[in-house]
Sequence to fold (171 residues):
Amino acid sequence: MKFKTGSILLFHDFGNISFFTVGGIAWGLIETDSLNDDSPRELSIWSVESYQTDNDSRLRRYTLRIDGFCSLHAESMAGEVVSKPLVFEGKELSLNASTSAAGTIRVEVCDDQGKVIPGFSAEDCDLIYGDSLDRRVSWKGNTDMESLAGQPVLLRFFLKEADIYSLQWCK
Fold:
């Protein structure tokens, strides 16, 4: 879309996305559907190019992954990282994560001394792959971690061609 930036306050309506710009600069982040059918929702930032020139301006969209400003990242050589002690509160562990087509993530839960808690080993963890903002971690098909509530645990992540952006305990 091309438009002149002659007015101070402009309203833009693109169907399910509407926003104002002041002097041609878009304000705020907007959560939008991804242009890729199988990708999660994302944050869109809209800006106008050439708004201080006599040339026509253009609207440009930049995107960011939700909670994706930084990540634990592993290339094709597998990596491992251990969390500091965390006190689990909830029933399930959810990851905001993505992998390449060949990438995987496994999660192991250990006590505060680093000993693997039976039923929560990396070998028992179901492979995590794909791209999700809310992927529930499971061990042999079971996501329930309620038995660990209130205990300090260490999470050991095994990653290959993968990114973990965030994690949370879910009730």
Remarks:
- The chain has a mean pLDDT of 82.
